[in-house]
User: Fold these one by one.
Assistant:
Number 1:
Amino acid sequence: MKTRFLSIILFIGPSITLMFIFLIIPIFFSFFLSLTNFGAFAMYDWSKASFIGFENFTELFKDELFWKALFNTFYCLIVALPVTVILALGSAIMLNREQTYFKNFFKVSYYLTFITNTVAIAIVWRWILNSQYGIMNYLLGLIGIEGPNWLGDPAWTMPSVIMLVVWRAIGYNMILFLAGLQNIPEYLYEVAELDGATRWQKFIHVTLPMLRPTMLFVTVMMIIGYLQLFQEPYMLTGGGPLNSTLSIVLYLYEQGFQYFNLGYASTIAVILFLIIMGMTLLRMRATKST
Amino acid sequence: MRKKKTSFFGQIGIHSVLFFGSLIMIVPFAWMVSTSFKLPEEVYLIPPRWIPNKPTLENYTDLFDAMNFGRPFMNTVIVALSITFLSVMLSSMAGYGFAKFKFRGREKLFLIVLGTLMVPGQITMIPVFLMLNQMSLVNTYEGLIFPPIANAFNIFFMRQFIKSLPDELIDAAKIDGANEGFIFFKIILPLTKPALAAITIFTFTGSWNSFLWPLIIAQDESMYTLPVAVSVLGGQYTERIALQMAGACIVIAPLIIVFLIAQKYFIKGIALTGLKG
Amino acid sequence: MNKKILLSVIVLLIFSVSIYSSTVKIWAMGEEAKQLGKIASVFEEQNPDITIDVQAIPWDNAYDKLLTGIAARRLPDIAQMGTTWMAGFGAMGVFEELTPYIEKSDIITEDHFFDASWQTVSLQDGIYGIPWYVDIRVMFYRTDLLKEAGYDKAPDNWEELYEISKKLAGRKGNYGISLMTNEVQQFFPFVWQNGGRILDDEGNITVDSPEFIEAIEYYARFFKEDISPKGGGGNIIQEFASGYTPIYFSGPWMVSLTRQQTPQIDGKWDVALMPKKESRTSFIGGSNWVLFKTSKNKEDAWKFIEFMSSHDTQLEWYNILASLPAVKSVWEEPALAEKPMISLFGEQLKDARAPLTIPEYEEIARAISRRLEEACYGVKTPEEAALAMKRDIEKILR
């Protein structure tokens, strides 16, 4: 039985229309903008912007700050991703044991960080990491470590950003892993035990392979999320000092909404889009081939 | 669930690790709350004081009097509720359509919807800003509310859920002469409560916490949302840490309350998304 | 029935009021915007047919938001405008030229205001704003800590500033001075004091002149030798009170804030003129009023600007926010003249400069601050930083 046309329009129409207006058309528009010199001068009268071909792209590839931003973003991704996976999976495994008590308390306290507003909690972290009055260095001092100038020393700023990123991500991913672990049938472990497998062997040969779908989902989401790093550096350090925490999206925001080089910023957006697509596909292919 | 016994020391070890983890998660919140009740002279004490000697509400009253935090608070409530209501409504309708309607091009259209999931928000930001600017919708509620409504994830999630409901339910109702509207509101929606709860919570959390878009679209303080308002609490002349902490509390507390009440749905919801994805 | 009549009367009333009263929309920033209401209500009393509507923009985002609003022609009637932004936004052709208004005015004349202030409103081909308040930097220092270190006067020149702050930095866990690695408003005075400039009269870029390089070197040395903390810092007032950073440069608002927030150091600190090299030049900033060409309400808007420029309002504004009047006559009031700390700001005003008044200023300032930071962190030598600045500025002016 075919559905009436009117029903289709009424049910699907509004969402699709909004999606076209705010998502799909803008994507193409963005590609187009990246080929123009659209700037503040053209805001009032669009005809003042002109088409400049791939000039923005060649300019961008020569732009020292863009490379810096790219480097910082990948620095975050490459460090934060494995650390998050290890900590989240580790906690999930500990929580998944039958003999673990206070499960709900642990779940809730770990998850709390994820629903928290990033901007607000970054302000709190900025205070915690304050080199002089922050509790971080105070606590480190108690165990005899002289804490660094977290947000003032270019060598320590990115680790500070990553610390906040990971801190926020553990709980959410832990819940995902936990759901994945609970879906592994018990008999697989029993069989392995009969074969005399050690705990580690069971982890390598049963848990990890069975977690592959979860792992794929978790890492893809993380790649997409971490490549869009913005709020943490924006609030903690504003991208500084020495642009040591300038991320791609932060640079895009600066170019687009502080200097109003909208054409140039669109170019950054297009590149980011391509990077995210590329990385995501790469990750998916990696799973397929194993 | 492995039944193998863990030694007593193993148990202690595992629980202390987990407990230490919890501590790391909770301490920043505790420190935020504690500082937000401090007078300036207690803020900068070394060694720090966990419980203020002279707790004060001054920072909170300042926030609402001098900093006019009432306005961004109301804005955030209005914007987050509107986005949540409209998005959940429209996505579940579309989800129903994609799950149960029969028409040509359905799968292709749905693939387009799914495709947008991969698109980072930043790429649409500039064009949408220019469009809204052209329509004089910058610095308005409309500009804050409409762009985030179309949410591919919600549509996908609802479609998956509704797909699993038996077709017979719908067919039987159709034989009785019910129209699509009746079927959707009276039969389908009541059955999707768990899924609705999950996307309601996620959408609300997401729009409450949304930062970059309101930062761009709000021109003056009258249109600021809480995250934007709290981000500029830096202070023109000198930083007031306790005030900033109070601001952070105001942004964070409502969601924690929602979370503690609706914990079950949150955690189930995430688990669902992971498995389906 | 009665209700209906009442309702229609109310509607009629609102309607008639809205016909006869006009609204002047204002963009204002930060604390100024929050306090402006107090002054505006006096104005509204004097002019019952005019309503003032202030839209507040925090200083943090002010430049970006003004740029968006101006670029998109979403404009109020008048706006508060940072003095250093006049040329940049002025070049977008949105400000009303004010000479005809000034000619008719009883209050506003050129010599009503400080010279340095008036320079910030006179762009190439006319007068595009009216000064509101000025902001000037002087040196704040802890008299007690300096005395302990063996100095009973504020550092008077470059050598003394370096020597004293170096000595103060020797106290364990503390620093000698608080400077910022990337703040041009703190850095430019050192350039000017040394006779350096960004552009010379012919428009040549002179950031690689020996004077400019020497200023970078001098400024960066405070960071290289750990005399000043590098970023990540917190509250300047608290750090001043705790002795962590016993010297810093800032504006007049800090006087009252220090008294309010850290009464424990009352009598243990003072302000002094900038340190001398060739001169003691300081940075003059502040805000002006601009009237937008698109305003449909120019008469009333101008009336408000005139009101804000009057002697009495300026004095009142000083009392509210402790920002320094741009109107000369107000400085003779006892509220300013008889306060030694405040009159010192007046003294410093005589040797102060505004940075470049060209449209590209903001971009140039960003480039300089980026390279300056590289010099402060020792990533680049002062010479390299200066050359990089030159390259950046060449690109901007191209």
Number 2:
Amino acid sequence: MDKSRKVVVLPCSGIGKAYGALSREIAYELAERVRPDKTILTCLPLLVINDPDARKLIMECPVITVDGCPLECARKSLEAAGGKASHSCQSIRFYVAHKDLKPEGVAQLNDAGRKLAGLAADELAATVDRLAAGEDA
Amino acid sequence: MMETRVKVGIVSCSGEERPEGTVCRMACRRLLEQETDKTVTICLPLFIAGGREERTFATKYPTITVDGCEKRCAARATETLSAKPRMTLLIPEILRKHGLAVPEKRRDYGPDEEPVIRAVIEELAAAVDEVLAKA
């Protein structure tokens, strides 16, 4: 088993709601600060157009989807492209756990939202470590 | 009599992987907030994850797509899953035209990135007016 495989983080692509922006910020926190050596981002729309490189990536690596609303575009687009999420979550659940940090803003998150994204990424780090090691989420 | 005004549908690349995607999202979002009476939008993956309502988006609205790279996900997804867009914009072409470089980061945009965002908003606003004039 490949122990050094990367974990793909696939966030919601929403441009209309704060929880979409929160999903994306969680993905950036994971890929740039918390686990830069173990994670990789890919654009969700690449799966929508069936891009061969993106499809190869999601078929070969474990994937974490982070959705912004109950429509679950990230998880559903992954499945439509033939993949399966190793771990799925909705960004609102992190707000439910940290009610003092209300995410606001769509183009860019407010300070509370950015702090919440950092906490969420810290919480997901253990899941990334297990998946990167070839274990279950 | 109630006025029925045509609005332009904006479909933005979300490009989480690249700075150009962030430029797309921010410019489109700000244009949508400036031109609420002229524009509407849809999250691109809803063409797959949504229902019939979402898939008829580009048949209901004359649509402009804004893409961050040559893969042109927004244009291709809109045409394949909904209907052919009226206009397609590409961030690298806009920035080349304005003599601006692509930002190096994917988030936390501020004054350094503002000229880039403004250039895209300017081009997109002109495209919206052009599409509306022909509608």
